[in-house]
Amino acid sequence: MPEVEVFRTDVACPCIATSLLRCLRVRFPTWRITFDLDDCDRILRVASPAGPPDARAVAALLHAHGHACTPLPD
User: What is 3-71's CATH number, 3.90.1230.10, 3.40.50.10420, 3.30.70.100, 3.30.70.360?
Assistant: First the structure.
């Protein structure tokens, strides 16, 4: 069963989410990655089939593109 990490972001625009998804999928090609921009926390979900997702790497990638990204507690 894949392990999932959920993040709160400040991504509001679908076109920006699409661009970030491309970057994330290049960096983490085996992960399932989705945004839920309708949620009040503008959720980013990542699921890794082999161990827990690297939350720091995900947050760093979004921060490098100028966006806030914070893992939500379990």
Answer: 3.30.70.100
